[in-house]
Design brief:
- The complex is a heterodimer of chains A (264) and B (166).
- In chain A, 36% of the residues lie in helices and 22% in strands.
- Chain A is built from 8 helices and 10 strands.
- In chain A, helix 1 packs across helix 2 and helix 5 packs antiparallel against helix 7.
- The longest helix of chain A has 20 residues.
- Chain A is rod-shaped and about 95 Å long.
- Chain A starts with a helix and ends with a strand.
- By secondary structure, chain B is mainly alpha-helical.
- Chain B is 68% helix and 2% strand.
- In chain B, helix 1 packs across helix 2, helix 4 crosses helix 7 and helix 5 packs across helix 7.
- Chain B is flat and about 40 Å long.
- About 13% of the residues of chain B have low confidence.
- The chains are: A alpha+beta (264), B mainly alpha (166).
- The interface between A and B is large, with 68 and 82 residues.
- Strand 1 of chain A pairs antiparallel with strand 1 of chain B, so a sheet runs across the interface.
Chain lengths: 264, 166
Amino acid sequence: MSTERLMELLAEQTERPLSSNERVELERLVAHEAGWSADDFELAAAATAVALLEREEAMPEALKDRVMDELSTDVLATATVQVRAERPKESRRRPSARPPRRARPLAAIGWVVAAAALILLAVIIGWPKPPAPSAIELRAQMMKDPNAVKLVWTKAKDALSPSTEGDVVWNTKTQTGYMRFKGLAKNDPKLNQYQLWIFDGTRSDATPVDGGVFDISADGDVVVPIDAKLPVFEPTLFAVTVERPGGVVVSKRERIVVLAQVEG
Amino acid sequence: MDLYGGLVWSLALRMSPSRADAEDAVQEIFVNLMGSAKRYDPARSSEATFIAMIARRRLIDRRRAAERRKEDLATDDRVPDRATSDHKRMDRSLEAQAAARAIEKLPEVRQRVLRLAMLEGLSHQQIADAVNLPLGTVKSHVKRGLEAVRATLLSDQDLLMVETRT
């Protein structure tokens, strides 16, 4: 009879929150009925719902963003501390009729459960992402790659580059690269911008590949990632020109500030 | 979020009166999951089932609260026709597969009651009205249906334990 009453309360719990009296009664019954837990039917209900769902709708990206905004880093930190500090009640009163899936020392259960909870927490919101490496770090990494070519800039006669030094490193395999400048004059983006051109041995010299528009806004060493608009198969020459804001499709090559030529 | 966002969103769409309400519910569920994660025990359920349980609990609470406020559930903003919306086949957890096996063996009327109760989130009284059965009979179907699902889940867990030990 008490098992029937227990199941009644468990079934009611899947439909509505129990009253405080019902909750007390449920806890009392669970304590006396071996093999039962207070959320047994809720887990069964969840498995049933998933089984009947059949189709999974993709969560809208905007909603994902909204939820991620809500789950701030502070919430993660708070929850992590709580997980470490508390030992789950369910594991303390696990019914003897239902042992855990794997035999393990009792002392480890708390840690295992806490670790699992942490993993679940991480699954829910994702591990905190490490900061993205800077262009300087990425360039340093590329310098160690045997597939990358490194070329030193040659100065051209332009007022913006009286004493420019630096280099360009390019990896054809990954189609990525970085330019390093020292001494290239700051530009006013409202007046003009720098633009990289990559000459490709498989293309005509009249139509070099646009390597991206960029600004110089600081003194000292500046590293700029290359943003090639088309694949470059055999780079032969890198050239930086000064162009109107936004860059151009075809450069008149009137103001070339630096060049780097691939030998051979 | 990438792993279980679709599951939570799908349940919310199914059990919410409107798409806007489903969006609010999803936000609330994930915040709630942050606090509930410490209660997760991998010996008792998969992550998917645990998350579905928390989601379902919140959705039921919201639905009952809305019903108490006598809000109009039949709005124009009703969830769109699933036949035309972007969806993919559920990658069911082992527990959901076990539940499906248990449900298949149930009488048709009990299957229908379980669907309305567990997936659609209807109250027992609403189900009684919908299928024209006495309230007590609906409650009995829910109880026996969940008992059968639970028994299958436990049986599968026991099998898993035996496989693990051998």
